[in-house]
Amino acid sequence: MLWKVKDKLFDLADRPLVMGILNVTPDSFSDGGSHFSIASAVDHALRMEDQGADIIDIGGESTRPGAVPVSLDDEKARVLPVVEKLAGRLHACISIDTTKSQLAEAAINFGAHIINDISALTFDPGMLELAAKKTCGWVIMHIKGTPANMQQNPCYDDVVFEVSSFLSKRYQVMVNAGVDPLSVCLDPGIGFGKTYDHNLELLTGFTSFKKMGLPVCLGVSRKKFLQTILGRKMEERLAGTLAVLSYSLLHDSAQVFRVHDVIQARDVVTTIKALQSFTMKQNPLV
């Protein structure tokens, strides 16, 4: 499975990618405020690259449940100085987690490689126009509602079918607009307008996504459904996060993993791929 990101072509079957989360916000659910200064954000990005991150995903607006929207000017002020400092210094790709086309375009011009849009280019009509004219990688995610209201009794008849259908349609819209078909990665949006059961249905029912033949980005790091399973606080959910990553790798249901804990995620990915490779050599017909 291939993913084209500007001038890079990733073979994700060979090497799944780890996307390190860099929140330059005061209020993100896990690490809000930890890397709010430019210097701290740059240091953390470089550290995550050293730890094995293939992608650094920079977000200037919290999308946790109930989050208050941030103005374009504020989001630009948080994100663009960090991109400017990192462009040319990182070997890892720079991803921008935003739904705003003006910020996305400015970030691409500064050197960003990927736009990660939680709305699948629906919140800002200008984002599709940008996608048609700029060469970059895209992560498009499913969300029901907005961060402010998405967890207010979300309902589905068939969550796997509805989420995969939505993403398939959004992908087709992008391709019809002129976007390179190889540049798009899908994200089912775990925790974004989903109940506990919805999340587990998506994590265990990826057949619909695999049929589309597109890479899948999975963001489960420290999320609340793990608290329901484990009864643990946010900072104690690493083992649960890694368990979901392992399950997804073993079922080949995701190829890009968006995480806070880069070293541990990279170790899981490397170890499982080594075991799978050895198994294939021992049993080439399996």
SS class? alpha/beta
- The name of the CATH topology is TIM Barrel
Rg is: 18 Å
CATH level-two architecture = Alpha-Beta Barrel
The CATH superfamily bears the name: Dihydropteroate synthase-like
Estimate nothing, just give the exact number of structural domains. 1
Tally the beta strands.
10
The total of helices stands at: 10
CATH class group: Alpha Beta
Strand content: 15-25%
Describe the structure.
The protein has 286 residues and is α/β, with parallel strands linked by helices. The protein has one domain: Dihydropteroate synthase-like (TIM Barrel, Alpha-Beta Barrel). Helix content is 42%, strand content 15%. The protein has ten helices and ten strands. The chain has helices spanning 38-51, 72-86, 101-110, 126-133, 159-176, 196-204, 207-212, 224-230, 238-250, 262-282, and strands spanning 2-5, 8-11, 17-23, 55-59, 93-97, 114-117, 137-141, 184-187, 217-218, 256-259. An eight-stranded parallel sheet has the order 8-7-6-5-4-3-10-9. It is globular and about 55 Å long. The two termini are 19 Å apart.
